[in-house]
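Possible race condition, two jobs.
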Amino acid sequence: MTTASFAGRVGSAVQRVAATKQLSWYTTFMEAASRAIAERMPLVDFVIDVRDARIPLSSECEPLRCFSSSSRRIVVMNKVDLAERTLLKEWIRHFERENCVAYGINSHNKDEIQQFLNFLQGQVRALRKADIEMNTITMMLVGVPNVGKSALANSLHLVGRISAAGFHCARCSYWSVRGDFIV
C-alpha cells in the first residue's frame, strides 16, 4: 500500500468519525474550558496567551478571539526552536501592530525562561506604577492543547520564582504576584 493511499484511507476514516459526532466528549470538554476562561478573564490582570510559534494564528485559543487586544494580553509563541526565525520576527511585529505584547520562547531553555520571568516582572512593575494601590496581580495562562502550556508553567516553576497558586482548571492556570515575585 502506498503512503498516499494509506493517508487517504486514514483521512476518510477521520471524516466518517467526525460526521457521526463520536467525539462529543472533546467539544463538551472544550466548551466547559472556554466558559471557565471567559468567566475568569475579567478577574485577572494579565492573560498569557500561549501559542505554537510555527502556527501562531491557528493555535489561538478560541475564547480569546473575543478578548480585545491590549497590553494586558501577552502572546507567548512557544517552541521557537522549531519555527523559522525570520517568520517569527514577522509574527512578533504583526502582534505588536495588533496592540498585543508578543514574546517568543523555547520553554525548555532555562536562560529563555529567566529572560521571560524578567519580562513578566517588568510588565508587573509597569502595571503597579499605573495603579499604586494594586497589591496582588494575577495572571492566567491559556492555550489550546499541545502548544506547551504545561511545559512553560513547569519551566517557570523550576526556575524557582513561580508556582501555580490558587486555581487550576482545564486549559488555564492562575498566578499571583506579591512584591517582586510571581507566586
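Job #2 (started ~2 s after job #1):
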Amino acid sequence: MASINELKDVLKETLEDRGVMQQLRARVRAEIFNALNDQPQDKPQLSMENMIINDLIREYLQYNHYDHSLSVFSPEAGMPEELLDRNFISKKLKIVEDNNSKQLPLLYGLVFGMKKVINQEMNTEPGQQKYKNIFPDNGQINEQKNEFEFQGKKR
C-alpha cells in the first residue's frame, strides 16, 4: 500500500500537470494582494490613456491565457470588469484592422505598426527626416484632432 507521502507526491504532480497548482498559486497571490489592499485607499480615477493601455494589456493577457497574471493585474489596476469597445480603442490609436488582425489583440497591431515604421526608417535616405515625433512637447491628449498622445513627462 502507498504511503501518505507517496500519495501526496502523486496528487501534487497530477495537479501540477493539469495546471491546477499554478491557478491556486495565482489565486492565493491575488487574495493576498486584495487582503493587503483591504484598507480603502482613494485611488485616482483612471485617465482615458491608462484605461486604454490597461485594456490593451488585459486583452493580450486574455488572448494568451495568462489567467494568473490577469487575476492579479485587473484588481491591482482598478479596472472595470467590462472591456472598452475595441472599435473605440482602434479609432483612438488609429489602428486599421482587417479580418485577420481582428482575431488578434490590438497590442499585436501596435507592434506590427511600429515594425513597419522602423523598417521605413531604415530605408530612408541620409538627411531625410526618418520619422515624425508623435508625442507633443506638452504630452497632452488632443481631443479636437482625435489623436491619442502620451500624457506625462517627455522621455
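The chain is about 55% helix and 0% strand.
Logs attached separately.
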